[in-house]
């Protein structure tokens, strides 16, 4: 979770629909990347599955914009948790009953004593994200995602969590989907166990992040449901097996180079809400897009100008990916809109370049994304 943060296989594709949440205007103004929550709009919970086909689809309640999350279970009998499926980190953790921080007490907590398959490991851990931090211990238990089951999966049990964003988000924990080199030393991430134990037919997963509350967002494991996208998949090689990181050759607005002038790296991250880049470049982009900000905030502008704003063009592996203003602008009210760019990518370490951009949900709502560990490509 950075800064806060194929072939269709009908016999073994598991799809987990995700939930979106709406942000608060005040939190966006404070530049939080995972914002406080407002106006939850719950929908009826339903589930469809076909055990013979190893295919599962869960319709969840749907929120408006920014953070996407879905359901897993841990333990025997199963304890249900909402988790952020995050391509920007590699660890799985949920709050434990031993955590009494405000951010734990507002969420579902795992009780090891109620699971007959739980094994304590007594190793202490500290995890840090842009949106907060947690301290806890490791344990192992049975994890289920849809109808995919992993026994003896090592995961974190939070015993202390920072207040702020982690206190307000509607999900309980995080399920990281990045490479094992980012995971806690000596542990194997969830997706690697799915792959290594042949729980899934192919070592791939994919995200469809919807832009409309009435549409279901989905993460799928073991293959690709091609009904979620149009056209041919454009594969891009991963440049470094840590984050889901690719080379980007240019970033332009109205023919002006606004970033990546010498080439750069882009991290594709479902756990980041915005488009995040080096602070000085983001500042220049905001000035170009919004020369007359309102509310003394360079990211705020009147909504009536949105249709006249330029399209951002990203070039990745020779393909131009347009990001029109309807996608990089968020409506906060009838009159006030927000530009979804954020500085701060400088905090990323060991990415092999002096300029890195994080392509968060603003980008991924536009483009269906497939993550192929077998061929190290997106």
UniProtKB/TrEMBL annotation:
UniProt cross-references to PROSITE patterns, sorted A to Z: ASP_PROTEASE, PEPTIDASE_A1
Cross-referenced InterPro entries: Aspartic_peptidase_A1, Aspartic_peptidase_AS, Aspartic_peptidase_N, PEPTIDASE_A1, Peptidase_aspartic_dom_sf
Single Gene Ontology MF annotation: aspartic-type endopeptidase activity
Tagged with keyword Disulfide bond: yes
SUPFAM superfamilies: Acid proteases
Positions of the catalytic residues: 86, 269
Family classification: Belongs to the peptidase A1 family.
GO cellular component: extracellular region
UniProt main location, coarse: secreted
Domain Peptidase A1 residue range list: 68-378
Highest rank taxon of the organism: Eukaryota
BP GO terms, sorted: proteolysis
Location relative to the cell: Secreted, Extracellular space
Keywords from the UniProt entry: Aspartyl protease, Disulfide bond, Hydrolase, Protease, Secreted, Signal
Cystine pairs: 99-104, 260-264, 303-337
Protein name: Pregnancy-associated glycoprotein 3
């Amino acid at each position: 979770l950075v800064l806060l943060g194929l072939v269709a296989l009908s016999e073994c594709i598991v799809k987990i629909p995700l939930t979106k949440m709406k942000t608060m205007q005040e939190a966006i103004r404070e530049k939080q990347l995972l914002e406080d929550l407002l106006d939850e709009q719950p929908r009826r919970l339903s589930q469809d599955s076909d055990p013979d086909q190893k295919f599962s689809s869960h319709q969840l309640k749907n929120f408006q914009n920014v953070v996407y999350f879905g359901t897993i279970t841990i333990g025997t009998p199963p304890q249900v948790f909402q988790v952020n499926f995050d391509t920007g980190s590699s660890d799985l953790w949920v709050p434990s009953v031993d955590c009494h921080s405000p951010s734990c007490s507002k969420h579902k907590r795992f009780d090891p004593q109620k699971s007959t398959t739980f094994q304590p490991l007594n190793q202490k851990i500290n995890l840090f994200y842009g949106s907060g931090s947690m301290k806890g211990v490791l344990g192992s238990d049975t994890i289920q995602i849809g109808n995919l089951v992993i026994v003896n999966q090592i995961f974190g049990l939070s015993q202390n969590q920072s207040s702020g964003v982690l206190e307000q988000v509607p999900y309980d924990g995080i399920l990281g989907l990045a490479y094992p080199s980012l995971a806690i030393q000596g542990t194997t991430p969830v997706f690697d166990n799915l792959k290594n134990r042949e729980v899934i037919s192919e070592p791939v997963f994919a995200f469809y992040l919807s832009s409309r509350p009435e549409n279901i967002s989905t993460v799928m494991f073991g293959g690709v449901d091609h009904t979620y996208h149009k056209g041919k998949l454009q594969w891009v090689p991963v440049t470094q097996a840590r984050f889901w990181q690719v080379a980007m050759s240019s970033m332009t607005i109205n023919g002006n180079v606004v970033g990546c002038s010498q080439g750069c790296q882009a991290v594709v991250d479902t756990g980041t809400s915005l488009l995040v880049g080096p602070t000085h470049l983001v500042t220049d982009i905001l000035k170009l897009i919004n020369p007359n900000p309102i509310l003394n905030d360079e990211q705020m502008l009147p909504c009536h100008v949105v249709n006249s704003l330029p399209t951002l063009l990203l070039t990745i592996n020779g393909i131009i990916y347009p990001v029109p203003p309807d996608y990089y602008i968020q409506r906060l009210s009838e009159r006030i809109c927000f530009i979804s760019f954020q500085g701060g990518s400088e905090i990323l370490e060991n990415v092999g370049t002096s300029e890195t951009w994080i392509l968060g949900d603003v980008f991924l709502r536009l483009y269906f994304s497939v993550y192929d560990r077998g061929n190290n490509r997106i």
